[in-house]
């Protein structure tokens, strides 16, 4: 008898148990790292136990004004933390490589806090940054790492996997908000996590993928979406379920970079989101590497280097041309 594929039991695959009270027991997680000399934690919302881990580059040139990158980690909305070792280490390397201050956001996880909780935490982080910027200008409260050393007019918002989904959804929520003096120059969606009831071609072709098998991604959506909805909900499938209001707002997004890999079952969803945004007049840059699997840059140094180079080039292009002409952000 043939052994069942590793994805046949998605709970076992994800190393989780759903408890009777609706919470999860997460049996295996990445180690959580404390802040270092290059990083520190700032409380965001103590009631929600959220925080921002700030990373700064080593050897900052004197009198320099660094850009800011707000970052949202991956984990299918149910796993991991801004302090999880792969994300902490990646942000440390990005801060150095990009010469950028990185604000990595600790957001609430599902199913204990189903969507839109993570989006609400993301908006709160963006508004926190706006308030810090206003404090720096007006002589009010502002974190010492931000007060004199950053350029608040050069802000970027990046996320990986579920974090890429957060980037899209937080942009919808803040596109009409006065964020001045913060100016979001660009959005970066790395291997963004989107879904739908009907499988895409890449999901069907890679349904037994060792990183994102289809039963596991279906379980992730069932644990993070609001109760009583399916995967065609607008949070997971904006292509099918976006209404006139969402379409109008996405047309005012700043320049957007979408990065993906050919062996990621989610890659077709990412391509479709890129085309959707282009259709609304957004300046979209895409990089789809034919090789590579989901989250490969966390474990493959060459993939990480290529991603950082792509992000760096995108940030430079945004800085030289200014924000997209249709963007209010």
Question: Can you characterise this structure?
Answer:
With 329 residues, the protein is of the alpha/beta class. The radius of gyration is 19 Å and the shape is globular. 36% of the residues lie in helices and 19% in strands. It comes from Arabidopsis suecica (Swedish thale-cress). One of its GO terms (molecular function) is hydrolase activity. Pfam families: Abhydrolase_3 (PF07859). Keywords: Hydrolase.
Question: Which characteristics define this entry?
Answer:
alpha/beta; eight-stranded mixed β-sheet; two-stranded antiparallel ribbon; 10 strands; 36% helix; Carboxylest/Gibb_receptor; hydrolase; hydrolase activity; AB_hydrolase_3
Into which percent range does the helicity of residues fall?
25-40%
Terminal CA distance:
58 Å
Helix tally equals: 11
Q: What order do the strands of the largest sheet run in, or round the barrel if closed? A: 3-4-6-5-7-8-9-10
**Multimeric organization:** single chain
In total, how many beta strands?
Answer: 10
- Counting helices, strands and paired strands, the structural category is alpha/beta
Rg from C-alpha positions?
19 Å
InterPro entries: AB_hydrolase_3, Carboxylest/Gibb_receptor, Lipase_GDXG_HIS_AS
Domain Alpha/beta hydrolase fold-3: 69-296
Protein name: Alpha/beta hydrolase fold-3
Pfam families: Abhydrolase_3 (PF07859)
């Amino acid at each position: 008898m043939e052994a069942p594929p590793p994805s046949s039991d998605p709970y076992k695959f994800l190393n989780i148990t759903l408890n009777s009270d609706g919470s999860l027991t997460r049996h295996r997680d990445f180690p959580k790292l404390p802040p270092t000399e290059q990083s520190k934690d700032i409380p965001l919302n103590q009631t929600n136990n959220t925080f921002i881990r700030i990373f700064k580059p080593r050897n900052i040139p004197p009198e320099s004004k660094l850009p800011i990158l707000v970052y949202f980690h991956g984990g299918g909305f149910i796993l991991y933390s801004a302090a999880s070792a792969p994300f902490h280490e990646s942000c440390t390397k990005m801060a150095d490589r990009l010469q950028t201050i990185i604000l990595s956001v600790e957001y609430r996880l599902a199913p204990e806090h189903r969507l839109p909780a993570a989006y609400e935490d993301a908006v709160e982080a963006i508004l926190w940054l706006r308030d810090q910027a206003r404090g720096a200008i007006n002589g009010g409260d502002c974190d010492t790492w931000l007060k004199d050393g950053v350029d608040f007019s050069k802000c970027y918002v990046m996320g990986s996997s579920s974090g890429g989904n957060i980037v899209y959804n937080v942009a919808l929520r803040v596109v009409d908000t006065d964020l001045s003096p913060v100016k979001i120059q660009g959005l970066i969606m790395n291997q963004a996590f989107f879904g739908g009831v009907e499988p895409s071609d890449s999901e069907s072709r890679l349904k037994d993928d060792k990183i994102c098998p289809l039963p596991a991604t279906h379980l992730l959506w069932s644990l993070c979406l609001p109760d009583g909805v399916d995967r065609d909900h607008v949070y997971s499938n904006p292509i099918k379920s976006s209404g006139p209001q969402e379409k109008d707002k996405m047309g005012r997004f700043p320049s957007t970079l979408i990065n993906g890999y050919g062996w990621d079952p989610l890659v077709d969803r990412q391509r479709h989101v890129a085309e959707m945004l282009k259709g609304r007049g957004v300046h979209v840059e895409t990089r789809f590497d034919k090789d590579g699997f989901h989250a490969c840059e966390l474990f493959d140094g060459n993939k990480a280097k290529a991603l950082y180079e792509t992000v760096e080039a995108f940030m430079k292009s945004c800085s030289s041309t200014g924000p997209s002409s249709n963007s209010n952000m």
